[in-house]
Amino acid sequence: MSSSEEEVDSSDSSQVFEYGSASGMPFGNISSVVEDINDGNDVVSGELDGNFNDADSEGILCGGFLYCVTVVIYIFYDDCKDEFFGFLNCGFLCVFKLCVDNISQTMEEDADGSKLYTPVVDESLRPKVGDFFETIDVAEKVFRKYAAAAGFDVRLSNKKTNKYGITTARFFVCNKEGNPTPKLYDSLNVKSGERRRRNSNLKRSGCLACMKVHYVKLRQRYEIYKFNEKHNHMLFSEQEMSLSRANRELSFGDQCNVFNACVSKVGISKSHRLRNISKGNAGLSGGTVRDYQNFKRDMVTFVGCKDAKMLINTMVSRQKCNPEFFFEFKCNEKELLAIFWADEIARMNYREFGDVVSFDATYRTQKHAMVFVPFIVVDNHKKSVVVGAALSRSESVVNFTWILKAFVKAHGSQPRLVVTDQCPAMKQAIPIALPNSIHRLCMWHIMKKIKSKVSTYLVKETNFVADIKKLVWNVRLEPEEFEVKWKELIDRYNLGGKKWFKKMFQIRRSWIPAYFKDTPMSGLMRTTSRSESINAFFNVFAAFWDDLVSFLRSFDIAIESQRNSHCIEEVKTKSTVPRMCSPSKLEIHASTVYTRKIFFEVQKELIKAVWFCGWDGISKVDGKHIYVVTHKNKSSEVVAKYTVVQDKSEMTVDCSCNLFVRMGILCRHALKVLLNDDLDCIPDKYILRRWRCDLIPPQWLPARVRYGEVDIEKERLMAKAFVIIDRMIGRVRNEKELLQNVVEKLNVMDEELEAVVPLKPRHERRKEVIQELVGVHKSDAFDILPPSGISNKGSGKGKRLKSVREREGEKAKKAKRLCRTCNDKVRHDSRNCPMRGM
């Protein structure tokens, strides 16, 4: 406090409170307090003049307010708070208290009229000329602690070293030290093609506040030989310090939050909001949205154009860690053309469920627009699982052939049945790479197009859609019956001239169930609809702006989610007992050998066998029993009859409906015969291995742990530390004293850890964190580039491809307009009205 402040008679302060008490009106702000001081301090001259005059008001408006507040508060608050807080309702005392808590600086003017601001801090924090430190780091820590209390940021300035590389002098300055470099730019006269400069604020103001230390040989320590605490700019208040450069540095938790948001397709702004809410105070967020965006930019820059090389390096590292991990890649002189990979669990899934495989190409999964091709099978819980994945530069026959050959090399065998959409390149590649596989088209893809191939009238006003679905999905029809009924349907709805229906009839052997109902597991032919579902599933995690490294990370997360679902189904199967619907021993046996999902399907067939199946004849030929089983509907009407042949000596039972061949479970007709024999269990030959429980062991570990890309013990300890701290806070959150005690102990522990593990420079810390999060090492040498110039279907348009039906649906939502020719609200005008010229 200055000498002029010390001369103020604090007893005069009572007049302020007497005025407040007499008027009965609390003071609204500091200005009103100052204006009502009869014997106050003159703001401009700094001397007592006995009256608050115009010069004082002008001084407050011109910037002397901080100085005035300092004088008023420190004189009056301490003298009067004890006397008046008890019984007077003086609102300005609360304002006084708030200002006392937030006082961070005093202001004065130098000889040339410039304003200088001196921070108000505890004397124990203020550095002093002549102080000694063991190391430069200790000196820096002291100055940064002082700066945090004072309200400014620190920048490391000049450094002097001797010939041995030992630092002999170090300058610590305010971050506003120095003057901005002048840049000539005329925003009113921008040349054609010149980049328009963005508006930016100047952060340097020529501040001279600093602390300088040098090495003293005699003491073998560093000494402060210069310290200037006066700044030429206003300092941060305590609340504003959260926006200082030092406090805006993202913590490891914030950086993990940004990374997790990126790989989960959560926007940076939303991630920042969630982080603020979780911390309970935006001032404690540890960074602004811009800081989050900058960290994301740094992660993208870290990978740069080396993502293809980093992807290959990651695959090589995983293969070294686990020889069961398989991958192959193909490139030309410099660019990646295609890559296929399958981990050990995917290969295990293929060995058990690889009889029917579906694959389909999807787009816009990464910024290079490479085609993503996941290979899908159906597991023992009837869930889609990935048994391999590929990225291809193009949808060409050559690339698809290479991918399929890599698939066979990875799994060692060809699938019995391959299901795809109507991609021409796939159609040509499959016979080359998979000559022993049966290629079928996905019915779901074809049936999805039906509504777009006929008029709206047929779709909405007739039973056409229901009739064609009933015909196409009828597995009981023979090929000859189907052909007759197809022609009847086409004639009935007058579709004989439609080229699409003619083409679908020509390729009927590739997609109609009647033509391959004897093919094992052909009931899974709708698997490509599962591919569509899997593509949508991957799109939840992958984004079209991802590089290849980020795409692999998103792929791993998606696969972990998929396998976690498998683990949940396994636990449900083990830990639950389904309710029995009959006293049959076959049902009890089925519940012990099948997974929950398959058991419920077998149980359904058992119930149908009891209530909806009957006998129409029994005979015996060549030692085999032949049963004619009726198939009834809910009205007890016989809708079909099937022949079941049973050989008791061989323990075989075959039904003409072929459900076991198509789906791998016994039909109701065969179960009717087994129930009649009062068997205790289903014969083993009719319990397919692919539907049994406990087939694939649950896999809980994520990919980065399995391949040693992260230290699992470290991850567990970090998670445990978070849990312990979270539990502590939850326990004492309503006990303020205990909470304060916890904070103090954590601060002590933090200081101890800081002495053991000193912080590295900021740029080194950020680089290490990015490398740890991304999971790859940056290499200066790279000989494989990502593909360029890709123009595949669905890429580079910013919008996904839409079907004709979807486009028509969007068009139907648009408002109609009045046609002046037909005088009706329609979707045309007079220029293209059908009635024009009539």
TrEMBL record:
Annotated SWIM-type domain residues: 642-678
Keyword field contains Metal-binding: yes
One Gene Ontology term of the molecular function aspect: zinc ion binding
The keyword rRNA-binding appears for this protein: no
Region described as Disordered: spans on this chain: 786-815
UniProt cross-references to PROSITE patterns, sorted A to Z: ZF_SWIM
Composition-biased stretches (Basic and acidic residues): 803-812
InterPro entries: FAR1_DNA_bnd_dom, MULE_transposase_dom, Znf_PMZ, Znf_SWIM
Name listed for the protein in its UniProt record: SWIM-type domain-containing protein
Organism the protein comes from: Centaurea solstitialis (yellow star-thistle)
